[in-house]
Amino acid sequence: MSTASITAVPAEILGEVFRFLFIGTLVIPSPKFATLWSISQTCSQWRGVALDLRYLWNNVAVGAPAHLHECRPILHLVDQCLLRSRGIPISVQIYESHLWDLCGGSPLTKLLIPYAAKIQCLSLGASIDLSELVTPALEELETTICGPGATELISLIKRSKCTILRLRVYRGEIGCHRLLKVTPSLEEFRTDSTLPVPSIHRISRGTICPALRSVHCQIMSRKTFDEFIDMLSSRSTSTTFSPIVDVSLVLEFHLGVWGMKKIRALQDQGIEIYVKEFMKQSPDNDSDAGDEPGGYNSDKVCSLIFQ
């Protein structure tokens, strides 16, 4: 393409092309980011259009460096992207990598401090020092077992006086109950571990998470399943707390006819439920064990979708 044809493209059309190609998370480094960065340097017009589209730069993921010498260049590029967002709400995701601990001086924390007030979504796959961050606009928080512990996250929430609407805790329980106690405005909670029984009871009474509408978690026993179902029924008939209408469960036991009846009863109350039965083969059980209560007869995932 010649220079004349480039400059002849109207800025509005260029903007639409950039929106179509690059809206979404920018993983740094990645081919998508490299392409956007190169295109934004094509000429003064293209650079101007790219810089005007602040939302091209406000959703970034700090990639996992392969070598120690890559850490600081990655952080520099992330900083440049967030700088180009120019004050609009930002989303930051930090991939798991032990190399960040070797950089010294908490480089990830130093990167985020200038933009902390605008962070709306924060995903932490690496353990970083949160003590200097104040994130009053934070609405969505995600962490893994490799990220900060519950104590650090609770301190961040309390210090920032933020309103957490969506909370995701993956790869093991890291103080779920404690986190739920400090997020009264929470609307969505996701975890790949078991929702603690004390949390189920308090959610049922509305003493924690009165605004909760979506839950995705694991259930390991029939007793806990019964308590969870009772909680959903209680919330669905409450006039004080919001009903929980979106539920996804992973069960480590056979649901059975009794469980399916309970699920269908909730469906009649307007609750949408997605259930997976994760059934592990037991060496002590024979092929008919799955017909017995609690028996496991296969190493597979069975999906039951109720609509």
UniProtKB/TrEMBL annotation:
InterPro entries (alphabetical): F-box_dom
Domain F-box: 3-60
Family annotation (PROSITE patterns): FBOX (PS50181)
Protein name (record): F-box domain-containing protein
Species: Collybia nuda
Origin superkingdom: Eukaryota
